[in-house]
Amino acid sequence: MIKAAIVGASGYGGAELIRLLKAHPEVELSGLASRAHANKPAGEVWPQLEGELRFSDVEDAVADAEVVFLATPNGVAMELAPGLVASGKRVIDLSADFRLDQKTFEAWYRMPHQAPELLKEARYGLVELHRKELKGARLVANPGCYVTAASLALAPFFAEGLVEEAVVNAASGVSGAGREAAGTAFAEVNEDYKAYKPAGSHRHTPEIEQNLGRARAQGRWLETWGPEEAAKVTFVPHLVPMTRGILVTAYLRPQKGLSTEAALSLLKEFYSGEPFVRVSQALPRTKGTYAANTVWISARADGRTGWLVVFAALDNLIKGASGQAVQNLNAVYGLDETLGLSREGIWP
To answer: Looking at the predicted structure, is the pLDDT value of residue 27 above 80?
Structure first.
């Protein structure tokens, strides 16, 4: 059994990691860390959980772990990861700390990187695109929800050299902002729908551009990446008054015309055999991926205007965070990637 610990286990992503890892047939959950809830039973913080698990401080939580999941705010993982890796533990980081090169990270996240020596070792954990790089990795940068949905929706078209840029319109449930985020009280979000950080100001923009640039440069697999290869994306996120879910609607102008049938065929071929990518004629819905580690993708060609519209839905707490982290665990250890994960969700 792989002994695993979670640091930041009192957040939404942490709660889903607890649930998924408790059910994983190859994992023993050995520790939970929370600065705010140390020494409390997990069931007191998360009433949906049963068992004897308790929160502790970081040192106690990770003591017996072979792999540590860092479900922490941006900036914390870069402080913890060097010591964890040096002690022989593997790290799967759910924050943004190791997803970008140092210069890009510091420009977009407005903080100095405290562990630049680890950036070259970190492996980017979007399994469908970077599976070859993950087996045996000591440090995995787990992508976020917007980035996963947009990147998987668009990567096939960039990999085929059909497009150079895209417009990505995306909507997220409130849990994507975190458990204690400001402005997410019921009275603030109910009966409202709003854009925020639009037109190149959201810090997930360079990560989407990085992924699509990699796909464009060398197809599905790429061993190295430089910032000069990034694609160009206009990204506009929106907040929706629902608990969880992401829906991306992206607009492309292919260099050669694509019919709906051709676009769907390309998507199906690109993701053939991928257990957690569903491509269909039916348009994706967030309820169709609720609690599943699946991204659901479709496309429509507008023959009148020449635009191709690509859609993707996923659960921001599962495929967009904790489920993807478990999929990365499976990939790192060479396990069946579907262990502990569901391709089908629930109807909320």
So the answer is: yes
Q: In sequence order, what DSSP letters do the residues of 145-175 get, joined into one string?
A: HHHHHHHHHHHHHHHTT--SEEEEEEEE-GG
Pairwise CA distance, residues 9 & 139, whole Å: 19
What SS3 class is residue 116? helix
What are the pLDDT digits (tens) for 130-166?
999 999 999 999 999 999 999 999 999 999 999 989 9
Strands 307-314 and 246-252: antiparallel
Interval 85-96: pLDDT, tens: 999 999 999 999
Rounded Cα distance, 162 and 216, in Å? 9
Backbone φ, ψ for residue 31 (5° rounding): -165, 145
Question: Of the listed 61, 115, 139, 145, which one is catalytic?
Answer: 145
The residue to which tokens 């491509």 are assigned: 279
DSSP 280-303: -SSPP-GGGSTTSS-EEEEEEEET
Give the three-state DSSP class for 324.
Answer: helix
Over residues 33-47, the pLDDT tens digits come to: 988 787 788 788 888
Distance of CA 249 to CAs 170, 236, 259, 308, 311, Å?
Answer: 6, 10, 17, 10, 5
CATH architecture of 146-315: 2-Layer Sandwich (3.30)
- Tell me how far apart the alpha carbons of residues 32 and 136 are, in angstroms, rounded to a whole number: 24
Alpha helices in the chain (DSSP H): 12-22, 42-45, 58-62, 77-86, 102-109, 127-130, 145-159, 186-189, 205-218, 260-270, 323-332
Query: Rounded to two decimals, what is the model's pTM?
Result: 0.92
The pLDDT tens digits of the residues spanning 203-238 come to: 889 999 999 998 888 665 555 544 457 788 999 999
Catalytic residue flag (residue 134): no
Element at 56 (helix H, strand E): strand 55-56
Amino acid at 62: V
Helix (H, G, I), strand (E, B) or coil at 202: coil
Q: What is the CATH number of domain 2-144+319-332?
A: 3.40.50.720
Asked whether residue 324 carries a pLDDT value surpassing 80, the answer given is yes
